[in-house]
Every structure is written in C-alpha cells, then in structure tokens.
Amino acid sequence: MSTHSSSFASRLLPVWCATIACWALILSVPQVMRFEYELQRMTAQLWYPQHQRIHGAGTQEHALTVSKVGTTTQLHAPFVVEMGKDPDKIFASDPLSPSDTAVLLDALKKSGVASVMIGAPLAWSTPDPFALDALELVMAGFSSCVTSARVGRGAEPEPMPAAFVRASLPLTRVIGSSASLPVVNRVTVTGTFLGKENTWAGFSAMESESPAAHRPWLIARWGDRIVFSSALLAVLVREEIRPEELVIEPGQMIQSPRTGHGWQIDPYGRGVLSESSGSGPDLQAPQLIRPDPIDLALLQKHRPPVHLLRAETDGSSISEQTQHLRALHSSPRLLDRVTWYRLPVKTEWIIVGLFAVQAVVVAGLPRPARWYALGGLLLFWLLSPRWSDTWVPLSPGILAFIWTFRMRLAPAIPSAESEHGSTSLVTEKEPHAEVPLKTTKKTIRSKKKR
C-alpha cells in the first residue's frame, strides 16, 4: 500500500508542477496567452457558429464575448438641415454669424425641436460678445446639443475643453492596445464656441490626419482620454447612450453593451462603414425662419436630433457627411451575446491542480478504460463553457495529459536494486555448478588406479 502511494505521488508531482507552470505562463507570456486565446476562440466558434463577432481578450478583466448581429427592420434616416445656401439673404452673413446662429436655433426650438447637432465649427475671428451670450442662452434651452471643432496635434498640449470632457472616456476603457489611435491635443481654430453646461463637443475633422473614403475618423486620443467625432455623438444622443457606457476595442468595434449598438472600427479608430445611397438635405436653413405648414410638419415628424451641416473647408460635401451619418445610424445591432467569464485566479489555481490529478488517475487505468475516461473528460471540459458561461484555461490540461501519457508510454529503465538482485542470484548458483565437475574428476582418478 505504501509503495503504491509513493508511486502515485512521484507521478503526480512532475505533472502538477508542469500544469502550474503552464498556468503561470498563460498569465505572463504573450505567446502562450495567444495560444490559449485561440483555443478559446475555436471553442466559441464550435458552440456558436452563427455568432459572427468575437470580442475581448479572454482574461479576467476583458472576458471573451461572441455576438450575433443583424439589421433592424425600421430605420429612421437622420434629419439634415443645410446651413450654406441662402439666395434670399435671410441671414446677415455667410457663414452664419453668432447672432444668425442664435436666430436659427431659436426658430428650431419654437418649431418643437428639442435636440440639435451642429456639424460645422462655430468659430469667428471677432465675435460680438452680446451675440455669443444670446447664442449660449438659446443653446441652454435644448435638452441636448452637440457642437463640433477641428482638432490637431501641436508641440504644446492644451487643456481639454469642458464640453469635450463631458463627451469623452478614460483611456482605461479601451480593450487592447490604443497605440495606433490618432493623437490630438488642441482645438486648432482659436475661439471655437463649444457651448456651456448641456453640450457635448466632438471633432468634425482632424488636421493632423488625412481623410479616407468611407473611413471617417470616429475616435482619437487626447491625453489620457478618448474623444469622439461629433457625428458619432449625434448617434449616441439619438439612441440615448451615454459615452461612459461604451466599450472600445481598436480593430474590432465601439460597442454599447446595454443597447446592443456597435460600430466597427479599424485599428486606427476609423469607422468601417458600408456604402449608403447619398441624398441631399431635408431642409435649408432659411426655410426654418418662417416655416410653411409642409416644412413644419416634416420637421415635427423627425427623430431627434436635427443635424445642422455645411460644406467643410477640406472638401467634405453635405452629401458625403449625410452618407456617413446614415451609415452610422444603420449599423447592425446586437441580436444575441454570450460572454465566457473567467474565475478568480485562486480558483483557477485549484482547478489547474485538479487537471494534474485527473491526468495521473486516467493514465493508471487499463488501456480500454483509459481512452474512454480520456474522451469523457475532454467532452466535459468542452461542454463546461456552454453550460456555465465560464472558461477555464485548457492549455494546462492538455499539457498534463500529454506529459502523463508520455511518461506512461516511456520504456522502463532497470533500477540499481534489480541489477544487484540479478548479480547475487548468479553468485549463489556458481558453487552448485562446480559440484558435478569435482565429482567427475574423482571418478576418473579411481579408474586410473584400478
């Protein structure tokens, strides 16, 4: 009994050490972590083949999530008002002055509009301070207001304006590396008006980055925070999503777990948007000052916010901006989501130790039973994520079984004790082997004397 216990302990110790070492490597070495992550991905694709998107690093902090997405049946296009064309000279200046902008926003508010997004930067060289006060007062009357600014990267960083801070995220909410995201640190146009208490600010363009067709910039890094484009902020306002709800994974998507919205992005923070049919604006800004019944009815049927756009100086037209807005609004929605969580580290340590015990026990069974037990254990570990929505690292278990079966199948090496026993056995037989020889010699001598 003691010999068997000693043999089991001697077999268990190296296997247990190997599995614990593998578990430690998963937590520290990127290459081993990547191997474990691929095992997790393959298992997720096996159980959920209809879930197209896989997110998360498969760690305790960022669990792996598989998602099934699809398009919604009813889509309400964004309501766009162009601020550029004014043939009847309704407004005093082109582009609109602070007082003209205040008049336009006041007309929208009187028409029942509660939320607006101003896609063009509100910047003037020598604005009238009383007109700015009037503009600020009108903006305060909306339930939500999104303003825009042109941003860039300078030698000396500037403090982030309060309107940008309210519509930003800490960099810690980013899953994976954020090193490839564009970096900005200032508003490039001095004196850009961003609003006060109830406004969110986003960027309309980044002067330090080149635009790409069908790849509008959606996010950028400003210090230790993530800022968003004003177009994406307008979508968040429309869907009643707060920025702090978002989870960002560069190269994958920007996701709102609560509502199921998601926007695919490349590693550089640009939106991967599908092409949508371009269309002109719904109304022109002068039509809002004294709206006729048809325009008023059209305005009151819209889904907020109203998007106030004008052609950008970098060549971005109204139709191109509208196309990007439509693509953002019509992005696929989450239909189903499954998350495989990780257990605490101490609990995983205990389970990994059980891997080693199971491997040694299975290897000690007779050959037919050994393979049946091995198949049953493998099926159990593959079914456990489906049953419990929990992932236990599989690499240590694989290493434990490979190590144990290799030791089991290795040829036996004779021990020193067995060699000593065989030598003593031969030595004891040698005296008995000489007796017949002496007897024969005596018999020959007696015959010669006769």
Keywords:
disordered N terminus, 16% strand, 43% helix, single chain, alpha/beta, seven-stranded mixed sheet, 450 residues, 12 helices
What does it look like?
This protein is α/β, with parallel strands linked by helices. 43% of the residues lie in helices and 16% in strands. It contains twelve helices and 17 strands. Strands 3, 4, 5, 7, 8, 14 and 15 form a seven-stranded mixed sheet that branches. A four-stranded mixed sheet has the order 1-2-16-17, with helices on one face. Strands 6-10-9 form a three-stranded antiparallel sheet. Strand 12 and strand 13 (262-264) form a beta hairpin. The longest helix is centred in the last third of the chain and has 34 residues, at 416-449. It is elongated, with a radius of gyration of 37 Å. Residues 1-6 and 412-435 have low confidence and may be disordered.
